[in-house]
Amino acid sequence: MASVLHGWRAARVTPLGELHTPPRMTAVLLRLTVQVVLVASLWRGLYAHTGTTAGLTREQAVTYAVLAVLASRLRELDQYAGRDTVIQHMHFGTIVYWYLRPLPPQRYYALRALGEQLYGLAWALFGYAVCLAAGVVEPPRSAAVAGVFALSMLLGQWVLYYVMLLLDQLCFFTIRNNSAMLILIFAQNLMSGVYAPLWFFPDWFITLSGFLPFQATLSVPLSIYVGRIELPDAGAQLAVQAAWVLVLALVTRRVWRRAARRVISQGG
């Protein structure tokens, strides 16, 4: 019972910071609305004089872009305001408390990320329902597509969790890594298809991204939703996503053990 209580408290750390700051929630709603409107307008404008580009119709492109914006809310909480990021804990030396709590740091990090994703999921589902009702995005073509998409999105968020964990673990081994973190986050967003579908990029870029886990986080599930990846081909993509989950889980587990040796009581 005590472990469950500690887990619940850890999971609600960052969401509570948002819920207790109404102006921050208003800003999130305003920013999400502006992003959806601008992204939908941009892609509709790009398709104003063409029917199909890179194998996508206008409706598919707009749906993909809007869903990418909504999916970005799953892990886009303002941790800096609550001084709850790993890089801040390392800077102020408070990372040592992660190793003094009843919960191991690995479990605390995982539970906190779970709480963030559930809170972000509420925002994403709300935005999806509004966009679907307004005709901004297309519904899935069938119940089977919706189910495979949901499974792929779950695996994608699992991969994203480990990718973000690796970026945070980098803080244990570098002294000044703000720029490196920004570069890596930009690369993750670019190669996962957040900014634009990967099919618009050169062949060498698509080939390169195929050897990295980034496209498994978002590009694959959204490609299934819009029909770029057909159901008969989805099984192979799901297997790749699952493989990345396994590989990254093993890597991050090893890095956690190495990171623990670098924590000292005097701070970061």
TrEMBL record:
It comes from the Bacteria. The chain crosses the membrane at residues 118-137, 143-167, 179-198, 238-256. The keyword Transmembrane applies. The keyword Membrane applies. Keywords: Membrane, Transmembrane, Transmembrane helix. This is ABC-2 family transporter protein. It comes from Streptomyces osmaniensis. The lineage of its organism: Bacteria, Bacillati, Actinomycetota, Actinomycetes, Kitasatosporales.
